[in-house]
Amino acid sequence: MLVDAGDVEPLSTMLEMFLAQAVTSTNAGVDEFYEVAFPGTPDWQKVAVTGLFDSAVELDPIIDFIHAELGSENGVEIPTSVEQLIDQDWQRVWLKSFRPIKVGHNLWVCPSWCDPIEPKQRNIILDPGLAFGTGTHATTHLCLQWLSEQKLDNQHVLDYGSGSGILAIAALLAGAEHVDAVDIDPLAVAASKENSQRNKMSDKMNSFLPQKLTDKRYDLVIANILAEVIIELRDTLLLHLKSGGVLLLTGILDSQTERVCNAFGDQYTFVKHNSNQWCLLVAQG
After folding, report:
1. Residues 69, 165 within the same domain
2. How far is Cα 237 from Cα 245, in angstroms, rounded to an integer?
3. Are residues 280 and 141 in the same domain?
4. How far apart, in whole angstroms, are the C-alpha atoms of residue 173 and residue 213?
5. Are residues 68 and 144 part of one domain?
6. 80 domain-assigned
7. Which candidate among 10, 67, 173, 243 keeps its CA 20 to 30 Å from the CA of 42?
8. Is 41 domain-assigned?
């Protein structure tokens, strides 16, 4: 059902009242953007609300009720469509859709259930689990591209907001001596640890919650999070950056670049790399 933003909550409540097994909302406008893996409240004007019901449920009375309740208030018809989903193994469907991805000239992100296409090149063997980070999102891809072109020999790296650990592993493949992968989500920490073991890098990579972060300083600090969170974490990120170290920031929409740069002050000159509406900011301390 396609509704205005103000009708999302009452419509969702009605669908749940009629025992919908799941209710989801997606942007139906043309200008707004919201990445579902990030926390926050999207600013959408038009929203497509979907209710998932058991096939035995009679939907016509439910649709009529909702039209009467919401449509009569607005005096407009609510666009509605019904689709029957084929019963299938959804986990297997997802696994099939996630294939090896090449980044740069010699870096591959390879799902753990696939054989590497180029075994002699740099391969990140990955199972993201429930953590953000497969290399398909533009922000992660920008970071991977940058890391694939670096020589990080003997460097110590902090990956703050590490998700699956994909960027931490890419840094090690670029020659880093050690990486600390930090995330607020225990599921991400667990996925990062498993992926470090999967890539035989657990001796060079630690994964833990922010509370365990010491006052250590790093040659490279990576934050692939969200613009607002990066601004909030400014002092923390700079606290752990060595003098002369490199700061790698992404999860930033192009329209948010100026605010992020201003938050870090005039002492940092950022080089910007773009991918569609996303950007990667690189600065040396």
Report:
1. no
2. 11
3. yes
4. 23
5. no
6. no
7. 67
8. yes
Query: What's the pLDDT at 182?
Result: 97
CA distance 150 to 251: 20
pLDDT score at 45: 79
CATH assignment at residue 172:
3.40.50.150
Considering the domain boundaries, does residue 129 fall inside one?
A: no
Nearest to 3 by CA among 20, 35, 26: 26
How many domains in the chain? 2
Query: Which residues are registered as beta bridge partners of 48?
Result: 2, 26
Could you tell me if 25 and 12 are in contact, meaning their C-beta atoms sit under 8 angstroms apart? yes
What residue numbers bound the domain in which 51 lies? 2-74
Token pair for residue 194? 């498993």
DSSP, collapsed to helix, strand or coil, labels residue 194 as: helix
The C-alpha torsion from 107 through 113 and 119 to 123, rounded to 10°, is 30
- In three-state secondary structure terms, 66 is helix
Greater confidence, 173 or 94? 173
Most confident of 132-136, 156-160, 222-226, 251-255: 156-160
> Is residue 40 one of the residues assigned to a domain?
yes
Beta-strand runs (E) in the chain: 2-4, 22-27, 46-52, 101-103, 107-111, 122-126, 156-160, 178-182, 205-208, 218-224, 241-253, 271-275, 278-284
* Assigned token pair, 272: 């910007």
